[in-house]
Design brief:
The structure holds two protein chains of two kinds.
Chain A: E1 5-14, E2 17-27, E3 32-37, H1 43-51, E4 55-62, E5 65-66, H2 72-77, E6 80-83, H3 95-102, H4 109-122, H5 124-128, H6 139-151, E7 157-161, H7 169-186, E8 189-193, H8 197-203, E9 206-211, E10 214-220, H9 221-226, H10 228-235
Parallel strand pairs in A: 3-8, 3-9, 6-7, 7-8
Antiparallel strand pairs in A: 1-2, 1-4, 4-5, 9-10
Helix pairs in contact in A: 3-6
Chain B: H1 2-32, H2 39-55, H3 60-83, H4 91-113, H5 137-159, H6 161-171, H7 173-178, H8 183-209, H9 217-230, H10 235-256, H11 262-276
Helix pairs in contact in B: 1-5, 1-8, 1-9, 1-10, 2-3, 2-4, 2-8, 3-8, 5-6, 5-8, 6-8, 9-10, 9-11, 10-11
The chains are: A alpha/beta, B mainly alpha.
């Protein structure tokens, strides 16, 4: 079975500072994959490299298309949705406007309207607040909005940057539960970056471990989770 | 008393013009955080295009709308060709480019259409009910046109997908790219709209001040004062600011400082706003959670 995403020799840098060194990894269609690692390991940069918001070299094959060298807008239009760190909410716009923007690259109006309804069903809180300025939502609601906005693209691949960041454990559990549903029902493949390793490994099928910009380890999540030495050395729990 | 009312009403009419110039400035400021110093000269050039079309025998409203379309396309092209290369450059680079554009358009207008002062027709005939005691027909008409422009702009930004995308791109360009919006084209759209609004302002003021290549230089200053007073990031503020500046300018000119010093009103307002209330009267406060 062909891979959804095939990354090889990926390097990324901010100005003179190189962050990723020859990173190789691949994603299976329909799976959830996690990227783990300490602060500064290059997790967020990996997602940014996939969206081409940082200078990159190497190869990123997404469904037969080379992403390196493409404009961010063009990558998105291929069906790669990104929930960036800090959520990237349009704070001065309303909740509904944020969701509509998520579908900006789509042309099928009926599909967009149906998906909007679906998001409201999935996140009733967003429906209650549809006309409210997005900046006034709570942290958890904003994260739900960010995920829904990304889903409005009807993406083939969803990139999630620390969806648990700064949220109460109960909210985190709810968001992760919904992410699993989305993966199973809508068949959206996901690449998840997380600090909270145990949470991510519970959700993901497969995981990669980054260490100072290089892949240190990879394997099925169950295996990584059960490996005592790996857990101590890299995951710190 | 009658003279006083007349001063207020003609101030409102001028205010409409300042408001549209301010609106054009705000359109570009919102998305780039730059003040386009060439806005006035671009508007003058557009007005010359309308004048040339009418000289060639076109009826007023045909020339009016075609000029708006040409100006929109022109603004779009200027952004694409001249400003795109300096999109990420420091502010000063952009300022120099704006001043360059100002000189170029001023010189081009003089070169092509000559420096002699020309009469520009008003589309609002004097002998209608628009002509009242306090208001002459053109004042009334230009306020109407100005309000139409404002409403059309509001509807465009509020109710169309492209308008929404423009607002998103202005507010958070990085996130806008992540939902597939071509941000750089949205800036170009902003320039196109600003040029079109400027063209309307030019065509509305030309019958009052007569058409020559330097027609807008003073008006841009009033427009700038209006935009700052109203809050440079707020289109509604810019419009209200325009009317306030128009009325103040007229009243102070007539009763306090005399017409020779009218332009000083604009300068005092600019300096005053920046020192006392930098965000302007209606500058937006965005609510965000940390």
């Amino acid at each position: 079975m062909p891979k959804l995403l095939e990354v090889s020799k990926l390097c990324a840098s901010y100005g003179a500072t190189q962050v990723l060194y020859d990173v190789d990894f691949s994603l299976e269609a329909g799976h959830i994959t996690a990227i783990l690692g300490a602060n500064g390991a290059g997790k967020t940069t990996t997602l940014r490299a996939l969206c081409q918001t940082v200078r990159t070299s190497g190869s990123i094959q997404f469904e037969g298309q080379q992403l390196v060298g493409k404009a961010t807008e063009s990558v998105v239009r291929l069906g790669v949705a990104h929930v960036p760190d800090g959520r990237g909410t349009f704070t001065a716009l309303s909740v509904e406007e944020n969701l509509r923007l998520g579908a900006y690259a789509r042309k099928d109006r009926a599909g967009v309207a149906a998906d909007l309804e679906k998001m409201y069903q999935r996140f009733p809180r967003l429906k209650e607040r549809r006309h409210q300025q997005a900046g006034t939502l709570s942290g958890g609601e904003q994260q739900m909005l960010a995920i829904s906005r990304a889903l409005m693209l009807s993406p083939r691949l969803l990139l999630l940057d620390e969806p648990s960041f700064g949220l109460a454990p109960l909210i985190v559990a709810e968001i992760f539960r919904i992410m699993r549903t989305i993966n199973q029902e809508d068949k959206v493949s996901m690449l998840l970056v997380e600090q909270n390793a145990s949470l991510a490994l519970d959700l993901a099928d497969h995981a990669y471990l980054l260490e100072t910009g290089r892949v240190a380890l990879s394997g099925p999540s169950a295996k990584i989770k059960s490996d005592e030495s790996v857990r101590r050395a890299y995951l710190g729990y | 008393m009658e003279a006083f009312l007349q001063q207020i009403f003609s101030g409102l009419a001028n205010g409409g013009i300042y408001a549209s110039v301010a609106l054009a400035l705000v359109m570009i400021y919102q998305s780039t955080h730059h003040i386009n110093f060439a806005q006035g000269e671009m508007a003058t050039f557009s007005t010359f295009i309308a004048w040339a079309l009418m000289q060639a025998g076109w009826p007023y409203w045909a020339a009016f709308f075609v000029t708006i379309a040409i100006s929109f396309a022109g603004g779009l092209l200027i952004q694409r060709i001249i400003l795109k290369p300096v999109e990420k450059a420091p502010v000063l680079t952009n300022v120099i480019v704006f001043i360059g554009l100002l000189v170029i358009f001023n010189a081009l207008a003089g070169w092509i259409f000559e420096h002699t002062i020309k009469a520009f027709p008003s589309p609002f005939p004097k002998d209608t009910i628009l002509q009242t005691r306090y208001f002459n027909a053109h004042d009334f008409g230009s306020i109407g046109v100005m309000l139409c422009v404002l409403m059309a702009l509001y509807a465009f930004l509020r109710f169309t997908p492209v308008g929404l995308a423009m607002r998103a791109a202005a507010q958070n360009p990085d996130s806008a790219r992540l939902v597939g919006i071509r941000v750089s084209w949205m800036l170009a759209m902003g320039w196109g709209l600003a040029a079109a609004i400027g063209a309307v302002a030019g065509m509305m003021i030309a019958p009052v001040v007569y058409l020559d290549p330097n027609m807008m230089s003073g008006i841009l200053l009033y427009g700038f004062a209006a935009a700052l007073l109203g809050g440079i990031d707020n289109p509604w503020g810019a419009v209200i600011g325009g009317f306030i500046v128009g009325v103040l300018e007229n009243l102070l000119g007539a009763y306090v400082i005399g017409t020779e010093l009218k332009l000083t009103v604009a300068l005092v307002l600019i300096v005053g706003t920046l020192t006392l209330k930098p965000n302007g009267l209606f500058g937006k406060v965005v609510v965000t959670r940390v």
